[in-house]
Amino acid sequence: MIRLIAIVVSLFATTALAEKMKLAVTTSFHNSGLSDLLLPVILEDTGLEVQLLIVGTGQALRLGEAGDVDAILVHSEAAEEVFVENGFAPYRREIMYNDFVVVGPQTDPADIASADTAVDALTRIAIIKAPFVSRGDASGTHKKELFLWTSIKLDPKLFGTWYNAVGAGMGASLNTASGLGAYILTDRASWLNFANKGELDLLFEGDPILFNQYAYLPIDSKRHPHVNIQAQRLLESWLTSKRAETLINGYTVDGTNVFVFNAFR
Fold it and tell me: Which regions in the chain score pLDDT beneath 50?
């Protein structure tokens, strides 16, 4: 009985003394399931309790600008570089990557499965005006999609009713695409972990332009003195460690590796 009480007291003390920080992460990262694996290990290894704010990349950057979080983990390099240039973070640190894929109805009316490039795939969808779902939320996925449309000099603002900008996270957007039998650009991790696939299939993948890098950005303490610098550094040290490399590279969904660690020192 005494031993049991001692264990309970020890666990309570560990929890009470845990360092805490707020980390804004993308919905796609959370939907991948990787955070459920990493967070308990981070707490066990470092005593750091990471509290996630799960939003799109655009909202994560806005939270960082306001100093509402200690760090962000996002996937839109151009936007991240502007964030650093504007003094909201001292640097960006690449952690891991995966890729984007195009998912759509099994019947594939736009025949994107035979497309040579991602741009070709979207061109085919636009030509026949096949139903398409967009995140529409300034997330990293949405920014990549807009970049692809811009590459073929098309403006989604001029599209008709076949283009559905839902302003939602990756999971909700995939649910909409499943319900409509529509095409959608998604990160591979979210697709693999998505349960409501319905009549959707992964139809296009493999174009280097669909590379999807995730980076860690600590919020600049000169701009926001209240941020937890110690926790920022502790988390970055763990995310770039051998332990993180093993867990990230070893994480699979349905036997498929989801992310590749590239936070090499």
Answer: 1-16
